[in-house]
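Aim 2 progress. For Dolichol-phosphate mannosyltransferase, the working sequence is reproduced below.
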Amino acid sequence: MTPPQLSVVVPVHNEQANVAGLLAEIAAALRGKLDWEAVFVDDLSSDGTLAVLERLKADYPELRVLAHRSQCGQSTAVHNGVRAARAAWVATLDGDGQNDPADIPRLLAERDRVAPSVRLLAGWRVNRQDTGSRRWASRWANAIRARLLHDDTPDTGCGIKLFERQAFLELPYFDHMHRYLPALMQRAGWSTLSVPVNHRQRGSGVSKYTNFGRAVVGVRDLLGVSWLIARSRRTLVVER
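Predicted structure tokens for this construct:
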């Protein structure tokens, strides 16, 4: 079987009211433009998310559904989705519907325009539709991260990204790694690019994160990623 040109990986947890509409938008954005698949990874939802996804397979032959047997979090869901993906390039979206699938073709067009060394295109929410407290917390977190990691990325928390599958799988894996993909890609020797994208209000359900929870985990992760970067050594290898 010929692999698709793009895999869209979507981690979900308790998003039963959002997954059908999100999948319909993905199909509207991509059908007729390229061969694609959607890999939804259910992180042990306690509502009807998994049942809705299984029913949607009858209408969407592009849909694949993975189910965690224990709840592991967003980074593990993304990592497992990318491992299962069949395309050489992967786009990711958050499962809450705040990312706009219509931005995926824009990311693909930017990928085709820039140098081959760019292996990650990260969405940049220039007009965030979150609460004031979340926007404030995000600005502080991005400022601290940029000062420590020097990753030249204004918004690493945006769920919509496009990257080469193999480059992603070669990165060190850890919980919450999805928030540090630009820095990790640059550590591996690749270039990254931030692309302005649309951002929408959550249509249904509740956020899985709190500002305090992000801060507690973020301090530890920042120190860890900073250490990884400091200990990195790269050189050009020539076969003789």
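The CA atoms of residues 43 and 68 lie 5 Å apart. This observation will guide construct design in the next reporting period.
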